[in-house]
Amino acid sequence: MQPIRKFLLALVVVMVLLARPAGAVNSLVWNTTTDRVDADLRGQPLWPFLEDLAHKTGWHIFVEPGTDKIVSTKFKNLPGGEALKMVFGDLNYALVPQTNGPTCLYVFLTDMQNATKPVVVRKPATHVPNELMVKLKPGANIDAIAKSVGAKVLERNDKLGIYLLGFPDASATDAALTQLQNNPDVQSVDYNYNFDPPPSAQALPPGATTAGSVNLKLDAPSDNNPCNVLVGLIDTPIQAVPANLSQFVQPQISVAGNAGTLPSTPTHATGMAQFILGAIAQASGGHSSAQILPVDVYGSNPTTTSWDVALGIQAAVDKGANVLNLSLGSPADSAVLDSVIQQAQASGVLIFAAAGNQPVNTPTYPAAIPGVNAVTAVQAGQLASYANYGSFIDLALPGSGVMLLGSQAYGMEGTSVSTAYASGVAAGTKTSNCDGWPQIQSAMQQKFVVPAK
Fold first, then answer.
1. pLDDT tens digit string along 42-80?
2. What 8-state DSSP symbol labels residue 433?
3. 58 and 97 in one domain?
4. Which of 336, 371, 401, 450 has the fewest Cβ atoms surrounding its Cβ within 10 A?
């Protein structure tokens, strides 16, 4: 009878575990008003737990590099101090309130002063109020569909079958989203998501001027040459690049309206163009037929949207771009934008996109779209402290560079810089030896390996 009793006991345990509510696993409820905590954590890695803790408490959290732990504990209604003891166990930590700032939590193996790596809470995705992006199935009528949900067609691209709809308020927008998701004529529908602002450039001392120079000679592209490369730079408005590089940059096109007066400091696209050209020079031996097509998807705005990025991608492809540089990103995945990117990929376009600068391991889009080459940043052979990481990333390249605007040198860092280098390496390699894109991608993955976190 003993084996049977053991079996029955094991069966009861399994049934109890299966009967537990799914939401009770890896849950953390921290009431900052009462300083009472409920937790049910099972085998959660330290870093995701700390990201959640920072989000729930508003604390600034710093970790000693190399610190790791699997968090497993369960309790209810404990005071905050006791909750931390239960969570961290034998791991060292120090909670330091500040008079004129947020409380800081230091987690470390050796000494508090070595806890220098910040835990950055990823900003939630935001979208343009009262707008939806819609992709229709062939033959569907957007005007009839818009009328059925009380929307106005703000913009349209009949070639792609994508449309931007406007609504009177948020409740009407949300109601229409549900209706359109269930409409058999609609292939996909999403909010019109905002993209993170690009990093800015910082002026450097005069001695840095030479470091930003690029020596590259143009091999005139010939018609119908399979080795030709046109890099679609989907980015901000672009300023003049150094005179010796101007012939590598085609006239800019814009999908986001008039940019107005540009700043006296370099725009993001100005830097990306120079970084792409610098990588082309390195990969091609100093001469190449590759060129850049700047596509402005920001206009006069500090940020861009899924809609403008989609239009910018298609505009570049329509002009013959066979490489796309997307040194931009959002935490939101838009099925409508995905479809535009997948259509470009199906036509043979190679795409590089930035992994993001937060640093978190959650996906950034469009980098995390299947088939897109997601690029993060390295510094001295290690992941840069600001760089996103995770299983969606394909390549890791240096994340800092020097650019010129007039006679002034500027520095910039971020995964957007790494992405520009990756696009330039691919373009320079293609014009140098005319390898196929799969071969070039494979070689780059072997050379620019993503370091372990």
1. 888 888 889 889 888 889 999 998 898 999 999 999 999
2. H
3. yes
4. 371
Least confident of 103-107, 210-214, 251-255: 210-214
- Provide the whole-model pTM: 0.78
User: Do residues 229 and 427 lie in contact, with contact meaning Cβ atoms separated by under 8 Å?
Assistant: yes
What does the alpha-carbon distance between residue 132 and residue 302 come to, in Å, rounded to a whole number?
21
* Judgement on whether residues 295 and 351 belong to the same structural domain of the protein: yes
Q: Is-contact 112 94, C-beta < 8 A?
A: yes
pLDDT in tens, 273-297: 999 999 999 999 999 999 999 999 9
Helices (H), 170-301: 170-181, 268-284
Shared domain for 221 and 93, answered yes or no, is no
Q: CA 115 to CA 61: how far, in whole Å?
A: 9
Same domain, 189 and 55: no
Residues 136 and 112 in one domain: no
Angle at CA of residue 320, ends 158 and 299, nearest 5° = 65
Final residue belonging to a domain, choices 119, 136, 156: 119
For residue 15, pLDDT beyond 70: no
* Residue 173: CATH number of its domain: 3.30.70.80
Which 8-state DSSP code applies to residue 181? H
Number of domain units in the chain: 3
Q: In this structure, which amino acid lies at residue 180?
A: L
**Across the strands, what pairs with 75?**
39
What is the secondary structure of 92-114 as a DSSP string? EEEEEEETTEEEEEEEESS-GGG
Same domain, 207 and 174: no
